[in-house]
Write a structure and sequence with these properties.
CATH topology of the largest domain: Glutaredoxin
CATH class of the largest domain: Alpha Beta
Helix content: 25-40%
CATH superfamily of the largest domain: Glutaredoxin
Number of helices: 7
Distance between the termini: 169 Å
Strand order of the largest sheet: 1-8-7-4-5-6-2-3
Number of strands: 8
Oligomer: single chain
Largest sheet: 8 strands, mixed
Number of domains: 2
Radius of gyration: 56 Å
Length: 273
C-alpha cells in the first residue's frame, strides 16, 4: 500500500481498501466506545421488540384467548350464584319439614307416632293370615238350580241344600292343598261340605277326597255340569246359607281362610228345625 497516495493493485484479487493503522492503540478508544454504544442500542431494541411483539400483528391472539377465558370464568360464576339461589334451597327441603331454616331431626328420634303405629299395624297384618274374598251371587244364579247331582249316597237335590258348602274343582287343577285346607276348616265349623267334580275330573276328585279323609257320600259328580255357572279356574267354594242364598269364594289357594264364613253358616243353621 502506498501511504499518502492511491491504493496499489493487490495481487490476491481483494478489493482496494484505504486503511490506516495507528501507532498507538489508545487512538481507537472512540471507535471502541462507539461500537459498545451500538451494541447496547441493539440489545435495547431487541428487548423492546420481544416485550411488545404480543401486541403487534399476530401477537393479538394470546390477549384475545386470555380475555375469552376470563369472560368464561365470570359467566360460570354468575350461573352458579343464580342457580343456587333461594328457589334451589327450597326445593331441597322435604315436604312437611317445616320452615326452610329449620333442619329436620335425623336418627331414631325422627320417627313419629305415625311411623310406629304403621310399623305395628304392618306387623299385625303380616302375622295374620290373609282373608279369602267372598262374593255374594245376585241375579238368576243367586240360588242353586232346581236339579240334582249324584253323590256316593244317591241323588242330592241342590235347591233343598242349605247351610252347606260345595267345593267345585275344575278339571286338571292342582288344588290338593287348598282342598285339604277347606275340608279341615269345614270340619272345624261342623258344616257339611261336598267335593264336586265333573266329567273326566271326577276320578281325580274322588282320589283327592280319599287322601283327605272325606267320606264317599260327600263326593259328588256333576255329570251335566249344572253348576258350571259357578265353576271357575282352580278350586271354587259355593257357600249356601240357611235361606238358600249363594256366595262364592274363587281361586282358592293353600292359604285360604274361610273359618269365619263357615261358622256363620253353622250358626244360621242351628235354630232350624
Amino acid at each position: 500500500m502506498n501511504l499518502g497516495g492511491e491504493p496499489e493493485r493487490d495481487d490476491f484479487g481483494l478489493p482496494p481498501v484505504d486503511m490506516e493503522i495507528p501507532d498507538d492503540a489508545r487512538e481507537l478508544d472512540r471507535d471502541v466506545q462507539a461500537y459498545y454504544r451500538e451494541q447496547r442500542a441493539l440489545r435495547r431494541h431487541l428487548r423492546h421488540r420481544r416485550w411488545g411483539s404480543p401486541m403487534a400483528r399476530d401477537g393479538m391472539v394470546l390477549p384475545l384467548l386470555a380475555a375469552c377465558l376470563v369472560l368464561a370464568l365470570i359467566a360460570g360464576t354468575l350461573l352458579t350464584v343464580f342457580t343456587a339461589g333461594p328457589s334451589g334451597d327450597l326445593s331441597a327441603v322435604p315436604s312437611g319439614a317445616g320452615a326452610p331454616g329449620q333442619r329436620a331431626p335425623a336418627g331414631p328420634a325422627a320417627a313419629g307416632p305415625a311411623t310406629k303405629s304403621s310399623a305395628t299395624s304392618g306387623g299385625r297384618t303380616a302375622a295374620r293370615a290373609p282373608a279369602t274374598a267372598v262374593t255374594a251371587v245376585t241375579g238368576s244364579g243367586s240360588r242353586l238350580p232346581d236339579t240334582t247331582i249324584r253323590t256316593g249316597a244317591g241323588q242330592l237335590g241342590l235347591r233343598k241344600l242349605t247351610a252347606s258348602v260345595l267345593a267345585l274343582a275344575s278339571s286338571g287343577c292342582d288344588c290338593a292343598a287348598a282342598a285339604h285346607r277347606l275340608i279341615s276348616q269345614a270340619r272345624q265349623a261342623r258344616v257339611p261340605m261336598y267335593l264336586v267334580g265333573t266329567g273326566r275330573g271326577t276320578p281325580a276328585v274322588r282320589k283327592l277326597a280319599a287322601e283327605a279323609g272325606q267320606p264317599a257320600r260327600l263326593v259328588a259328580d256333576d255329570a251335566g255340569n249344572v253348576l258350571g255357572m259357578y265353576r271357575g279356574p282352580g278350586l271354587t267354594a259355593v257357600l249356601v246359607r240357611a235361606d238358600g242364598a249363594v256366595s262364592l269364594a274363587r281361586k282358592l289357594g293353600p292359604g285360604l281362610q274361610l273359618t269365619s264364613e263357615l261358622r256363620q253358616l253353622a250358626g244360621a243353621a242351628a235354630p232350624a228345625p
